[in-house]
Each structure stands twice: as C-alpha cells, then as structure tokens.
Write a structure and sequence with these properties.
Layout lengths: L1 E10 L2 E11 L4 E5 L6 H9 L6 E6 L2 E2 L5 H6 L2 E4 L11 H6 L14 H6 L1 H5 L10 H14 L4 E5 L7 H17 L3 E5 L3 H7 L2 E6 L2 E7 L5 H8 L2
Amino acid sequence: MLNVQNIDLFYGASQALKKVSFTAQKGQVACVMGRNGVGKTSLLRAVAGHQSIRNGAIEWEGKNIASLPPHERAKRGIAFVPQGRMIFSQLTVLENLKTGFSVLPVSQRKIPDEIYELFPVLYQMLKRRGGDLSGGQQQQLAIARALIMKPRLLILDEPTEGIQPSIIKDIQRVIALLRDRGEMAILLVEQYFDFARELADNYAVMDRGEVVLSGLGKDMEEEKVRKYIAV
C-alpha cells in the first residue's frame, strides 16, 4: 500500500503541493485528476523520488521512503511511466525493453512472453528504433518497459495523452487486467474523464496544489469532477 501523508513540495519559493494526502492499494487503481499545472505530475514525481518533499511522509509497504533516491525506490518495486513516455528514440524496441532489467537480479533478466501478449505490436517491431514508433506504440513500449521491472506499484502519468482511441482502449484493457490480478497498486494521473471513471477504484481531484475532491470511484459525481478538469 502507498500512503502519502500531508506532503508539501516546493520549486524554489513556489509551492506546488500543499498538505496532499492520498492512498493506493494493491489490486486497485487510484486516479488523480485535475487541469494542467495543478500539481498532479509533481505528486507522481514525489512518489517516484524525482522531486524531494519538504514536509510530510511517503510510505510504501509500511516504510517511509521519502528520503530514498529514485533507483532505490525502483528496487523496492516502484515503476514510473512519465508523461511524454521518455523512451530512448535511438534504441530499438528490444533495447528499450531491456533497460527495464536494471533493477532485476541477473537470473531474472529476461523478457516474459506475457509482455508480447499484452502488447502484440511490440513483438512485431522489436528491431525498429523507438523513435520510429507512433505515439500510441511508444506509450505501449513505455508501459511494457515498466512492467519488465516486476513492479508492485505502477505509476502512470497521463497515458492517454495524444493517443488514438483504439490504443487508448488497449491500454485501458491492460490496466484493468493488471489491477484485477491483485499483485500491484496502480497510481494513475489522467485528464480523460471517461477513461478515469472506468478504471478508478478511488480518486482524488487536485486544484492549485491541493486535493479538493476525493472518494470511491463508484461514487464519483461527474458534474463535480468535470468542473475541476474542464479547460
């Protein structure tokens, strides 16, 4: 279980997160929504270790990891798929996938067949460079690379951004499958309301660095949420 408790995060003198609390449990999708610039990505970066917090605690599986660097959090089962995908454009699809080996012992450094079952298009493009893939294919590659790390917490920052509807459906199917296995917690930042509503077991809506709405996904009130995500 991930337990974020009253965290404050600053960029210089500017406060990006104000007393933010949130939880994500194994076998569930926790969804964070809000407009651009309200602190959603800052929250994910704080959990993944890419940005330090000033106050509060970030607990994962019962231990405060707020002082740990990103690679130590990755070794503890936290995988981060950032906004914009951040694949290696000059490496092949296969080489990109192998970068997920970095946190695994040598004996486990092989690509499971399941990766290609979840994302068949990647198997067809193993020798192609990552930069030659479409945006949707790159997003699938980024998620696949994270899954190779065998995560217990999968963090996804706007996986539907700039992607065609058919691939959005594929990604939604994969996230639902991973959730239903009950082996990992999934923390999802999303602005696409219908996608979020379909997947969220619990949710939080952010505005100006604070959580302004939260609750169970099944109790989500569309009108109230859309007020904070509409541009």
